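Blinded run. Sample ID left blank on purpose so nobody reads anything into the name before looking at the predicted structure. Input follows.
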Amino acid sequence: MSDAPTPNSLVTVLQAAQVLKVSEQTVRNDVARLDIKAEHTIEIKGTLVKLYYLKSLTEARAKIVAEADERRKAGLTLKPPSSDASDAVQAAFKSVGADLNELTDAITELKGMAMKLMEQNAHLFKALANIQTYLHQPAIQLPVIETTPPTKVEAHLAPKPALPKICIAGIWAAQQQMIQKEFGDVFDLRMFDADQATSASFANTLESCDRVLLLTNFINHTIENKVKQSKAQYSHVRGGMTMLRDRLTTLFVELTPLKAKA
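Blinded prediction complete.
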């Protein structure tokens, strides 16, 4: 029988899970969340298996547990059963508590992934906007070499194409900030929550927009009727921020080339 692994031993995720007495998926989540790099890779029956120092995975688990404890202190907690509760009640409390901890960790991980995705989208659209501008610049005019003194050639920079103007109705203030950060470099965004969409400013904005997006879950029929009466081109977005981002991405492909050629 082999000796138990030490902190400096190289172990697989499964071995680490057995030592830490957690599920294999929990260890995988720890590795992904803290971006722990494998120290070595071996091949077992044609499958590549990553090896990590047990010490690194143990420290990662302790860090994540500590963060979860801090979040629970400030957020959702379960009141433990009384000391005279039955064994079944005590066992049920431990099980529910463990499930709650894993749910909290998963929510935190998803929030981190969402922030990374938002930053990646912002960089992506900046790059696409730069490409669109570059592709529609006029060819560089080279000066003609003459025997007489050449006429001074002045550089003429192509004007930056006007951004498509997009009006979004039914979007909250916090969501407006996220969308502005992700798409503000490629669209002239005009955003209104449900209350603001009843204002005269909203009605005036409709007349000059290329497209109007209506978040159907957060507006009423009065707002929709106002958009219809304006004769603006509009479409419904049924869903949340993911559907809105998908629709804006589609509009970027549809509208940006047209504006660049105008």
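Unblinding after everyone has recorded impressions. The mean pLDDT is 82.
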